[in-house]
Batch of 4 targets.
Target 1
Amino acid sequence: MRLTLRTLLALRNKTLAPDDETTLTEKVRESSYAQQLLDLIANVVANAKLSALAPTATGPTDDANVMAEYIDSTLPPEQAAEVDRTCLESPIHLAEAAGSHEVLTLVLGKPADVPAPLRDRIYGLSSYTAETLDSPLPAAAAGGDGQAAQGGPQTAVPPVSLSDSGAFQAASRLQPTQISASNTVHPAAAGSTEPAIAGSRQLNAAEASEIFGDRLRTSRVVPWLVTLALVGVLAFVLKQAFEPLLHPTPTELTQNDPAAVDPAAADPQPAEPGPAEPEPAEPAPAEVVPPAATEPPAADPAAEVEASPPPPVPMPSEPAAVEPTPEPATTDSDVAAGTPPAMTDEPEVRVADASATTDDPGSNAVGTPDRAAAEPSAALARTASSNGLLLGLPGGADAQWVSLPNESPVAADTTLISPPKFRNQVTVTDRYELTLVGPAMAHLAAAGSEAELHVQLGRVLITALAADTQLTVRYGQRVATVDLPEVGTTLAIDVSAFRTPGTDPTIAENRVLVTRALAVVGPVFWQLEGAAAEEIQTGQQWSQIGDGSPEKVTLETLPPWIDGGVESAIDKTARKTLLTLVPIGDSVALPLREATHFRRAEVAALAARTLVMLGHNDVYFGTDGVLNNPDQKSYWEDHVAALKARIDLSPTAAKDLLADARSMDAANADALFRLLWDYSPEQLETGDDAFLVETLDSPQTALRVLAIEALRRVTGTSLFFKPEQESASRRKSDIKKWETKLRRGDIRWQTIPIAGATE
């Protein structure tokens, strides 16, 4: 027999069979938790100050019928488990279950003490119909023999069992009866409309009001619906009332614009003010005529005379006498102008600058065209038109990570990051295309007139757009020259860092770089610096671990990341949602931080993993950190993998992560950082396995998360431990499983990680 709350109640009230009672008593002696639960049941039943459930309670276990079926063992197993959980958490529910079970046991365990006159009256009811229940008994019926009416000696009531207490099946066992003209009692017909069971008749309004009083009420939804309707009507009325203020007409905008009232009076010297009024008008009276109704004084000849003599005018510049210059001038005026009158006037003023450009041809009043013309010369690559989220960090001390727009130039000395779940394309000098498969990080540097690709982390696809394409690829301290002989030749490069479990990531010697080059469409020629070129055929993979000797193998199937594989609906939704939260062409640090608190956990997880690639590790630590957020429990394994990849990137990255952890959680930073190292087999044998099990009971959620993830990597299982559980008493049962494995010495690596092992 299983030890459950219902069996404990039956054991407490002595309603079990002798064999079951003996078995269950032995189990209770072996379980301290069961003994504590029995004490708790006794306390809540004896507690007179404990209140009852509220009449308005609407929980799934607050229904009296649910509790009745639970006590009678007729509740479905899934609902019974929910009632068990509720009773263990709520003393009120536990008292209700225990008290009801005790009362039913007392009532059903011995015959009821019924007075003899009442018993005789009830037995005499068989001679009457339901309509005469309230009539006084005749003398003959009242003087009948009570002993004869009892129908023989009473039988003892059997004890209550677990399967059927009998208390809740009384209604189904009673059969309505009818009395015939000969006073013979027999069962009622199926079509009878007046059953003789008390309480079966529907109460009318007067009777219900007398019984229930003012406890009957209408639905609570109706007032809310009425309130919402009134609020909607009020909002519509307010919108209609303030519509003229929210959307003024163009005439009102012109009247309220101070610049359009008297431009000549506002600017007595049109040659000087560059920011407000670009230049005085050109001596072309024909072009001044169209806006005459708006600004007639702007074409004053006196102003034109003043505009041509003075050479030191700052705004007239390089547009010189070249014919195309009015176009960028018009574009700048369109951007600067905010109202229709200003848009009409500024192009005419810009035309007048053509005469003044001869005085200072070296100056440049319009900076945007020159900057746009300079970008192609400095750009090494260009982003594709179908990218998702490609992040770039230009060279410079004060540079910030920005999201690169589609079809935009990428300057030299730019670091590119493709976040997890994203694939982004970059075309380099129209000769080859790079596809960064997230998470990936690469750097574009200029080597003379050519581009040099530095793959720092992750996976990159290189596809030739021209025949005989050659490029330089750097990974770690090594440099390779790649030849792509034909258009469409594709090479896949995968660079990852490996560190032996238990070694310090801040020491460079503990880190080994694993590089793989796979010819997706070959042949590809790969030549390391100072070595001979190697030909890689289609399906062949060239690999090198650290400074070891390269080796070449043939793969039967291509890795799934080459073509993207199958993307889940959750990942697709997370990508699309994050794109709407991050502005294109602007800094991404602050929007990504805000996205870590998004209502959907998968979006917040993707934003946090992107931030750690940018070096913003502090979002993972502290009270509001990702490792302390129970909403992220489904993605903690991915978060820990992202943190481990960050500390393995370089010793500097590992030190930065430790500094961020100390700034957010100084008390636990060193322990958190140590848990990310993992543990070697020797360290586990010397006591670190006990430290991991002990950390599972830490009051800090972040420590529990990193400890269980370390145990998962070592043993391959979590034993269903829930690090988000804040109650120490509820964690104990799961921790006992790990303590058992600790005593047996089973917390050991199932497969010791080695460099170059496939995932």
Target 2
Amino acid sequence: MQWSGSHSLDGLPQYMIVFGIVFDADYLYIVAHFPQLSISRDRVDKYISTVVDKLPFRASLPGPTYVEAAVGRLRVAIALLVLRNHASRLVKLWEHQEGFWYKWIINVELMMRLVRTTVTVTVIAAWAVTRTRTRVMEVVKMAEVETVKKTCKKINRKDPEKQPIMESPISKRCPCSIYVGP
């Protein structure tokens, strides 16, 4: 199952990682944030944050030798320039997603969540071929209705329409998405 190009749905490509900056009195920390699929019973997907780099950045320069401090500040300047270019690239990629970058993120999260279900092969194939949000949501709705029907049969319910459906975190942002509770 491919997401785009040679990247799998199990993780985002490196150029799609979101970075943050944390500054304290002595250091500038660069933190990477990336989505992680849950393997626990609660099935709540999370974002994992990890410190990528710790750069010395003090307000006052120590002692008579400024070489180390100057090299440290040069590293900070280069890191901030690289992060600015990275953010610019992300914005350009997100702008091409029907004009709304957040829809693209929701779709990727939805696809990552659906990878765990048995009815997702059709959804992912349709998404890879069409890459349009409308078509994806149509296929997702059909797949989720089938999931509800299969779940109802397993618990011997006669009417799948009366099956309780729980809201997932994604459904709060995307009204087309439903999640059948465990």
Target 3
Amino acid sequence: MKKVFKFALVAFMAAAVAVSCKDDPQPTPGPGPEPEPEYTGPEQGTSAWSVIGTVLETSWDTDYVLAEADGIFVLKNLKLAAGNEFKIRENKAWDNNRGGDFAELGAGFDVTNGGANIKPELDGFYDVYYNPAVEQMAITAANGTPSWKELPKGLAWDYVLDIKDWHINSTFMFDEVSAPIKLNPAALTFQVKFFSNKWNNCKFKDKDANGYQLYCNRLGEFSNAAESQTVLLRFSNDGNADGQLCLNAGFLGLNQDQLAVDGKAYVWSTGEWHVITITSDGTKLSVYDNETLLKEYSQSGLADEWKFARYDISMTWKEGSSDNDWPLRQAFNGFVAYTRAWSKALTAEEVAASLCDVPADSEGLEVYWAYNCEEGSVVANQAANKDYALDFAKAWDGNGSKNNTANYAEAGWTPVEEIENGTVCPAAE
């Protein structure tokens, strides 16, 4: 009996040991790491701007469209690799593109039309930003926030000059005719900031409310005292397309006196501010709309000196009292914010930086008339240590004599808040 029990006990223990070893619990395998989702490309938008280059194993043949929000453009989740280079361009065309030298992650860097290819030397997923208000781009880590340079606030425009119905004399001679501003034609820049409400359709012979024929839209003229050497700015001149710039500047070494800038391909828009800039450096004359270079013309045979002695706002002197006056039939339907003349040819970078206010002591700044007046007749010259204020009460008539009839009361000092899209400079808000 004892032997049987002992045998049974030993067998039970062996069985228990065997069961215990066999069923020792093991950790249950987990699901493991989630596989990385397949990369399907950047988050594209619907704006006019796009990235193009060697990104994503392309070779300058594929555009990736940026999204736009509050005036800033972004392409998110762009996969970059060392050695990639790219630019952005508008409407998938090369006539308006941006490039520049990348500085550091997250920081805005300056870009220009026709600038260098952007070579960030980064490897991973990034967001690419473009801020046209400061003409900078930035590359950030995914969902990062870019930092932009601050533009100087400078002059804040509360008023601009309405010239669409201007029954006053508007030719200004500086310090009589005896003391013009003597300038070198091979080192000049002219700028006017303007806003057009509507282009007169001269090609199809529009008429005004009184049935009189409208002609061109005359923005202004820089000239010598005799008006024989001029830079004349007109739009929609008879026979040309509406909103097309017609430039008279033959004395600046051009082979023709009158140019239809950029053929009939470029039309200046209405309902927004533009800065028209004309630069002359002795080898080429350049025409800009804001920071965009529209055209360059070869120059030769320039004179050594040009005497800047008069400036016309819109049309020149008024010939009589009738609404059928020739000057009034060339009236400019819109506003002007400022006029500038420089004794240097601004570079493309300087043009882009000068669209709002500029420091009074800027190199080469000769006249800077900011039409930021609530009332009165005098428009001061903002350039440092310069005379040559414009005085509407001392405009010159067509016979070369002053008109002191104080018609400046008809000048339209207009609050910018009354103009849709009328803010002159975002930095001044």
Target 4
Amino acid sequence: MTLTAAVAAYIIASTG
């Protein structure tokens, strides 16, 4: 779960 959340946050930060 934590790993998925980290990846999602990375994608959001990358696109933002």
